[in-house]
Amino acid sequence: MTYWKEFDTAAPRISTIFRRRHAAAGNLCMLATLRSDGFPRISPMEPRFFEDRLWLVGMPNTTKFADLARDPRLCLHTATVDTQVSDGDAKLWGTVHDVQDEGLQQRFAENLYEETGFDLRGKKFEPFYALEITGASAVEVGEGDMVVLIWKPGQPEHEVHKRPD
């Protein structure tokens, strides 16, 4: 399984771009899931880094979590409003699994409170999704070209250069 820590080591450039864009957008990303009728759904999501993993946690009983409970596949895209993508962007593909570990959830809630003041201490999180990353890509814009970085488990990051016509 490739969790954030392993991904960060295997794909450091994509990881750096993801973290930078995640922070720049106030932790906001766009989450793509599959609805029960098979069509895609895009929802806002604020994934959080905690204990070497990336977590998808939020309001229970939402359609995005119902989607993930039915089909754990997803794409997570950093949010951007810059049509020139001058600061880059990144996407992660993967699956989630629900981690019902009360101690871990309470450490997460303490950390959330310390970092944001949002108090969920003492609450049970259902679901509490850990992201397993199955692929990733990122874009960097350079002088005269765009570099697309691609990563898959077991392979190093590699570059594809795109030049405007």
UniProtKB/TrEMBL annotation:
Pfam family, one: PNPOx_N
Limits of the Pyridoxamine 5'-phosphate oxidase N-terminal domain: 27-134
Superkingdom of the organism of origin: Bacteria
InterPro entries documented for this protein: F420H2_bilvrd_red/Heme_oxyg, Pyridox_Oxase_N, Split_barrel_FMN-bd
GO cellular component terms listed in the entry, alphabetical order: cytosol
Oxidoreductase among keywords: yes
Record-level Gene Ontology MF annotations: coenzyme F420 binding; oxidoreductase activity, acting on the CH-CH group of donors
Annotated keywords: Oxidoreductase
This protein's name: Pyridoxamine 5'-phosphate oxidase family protein
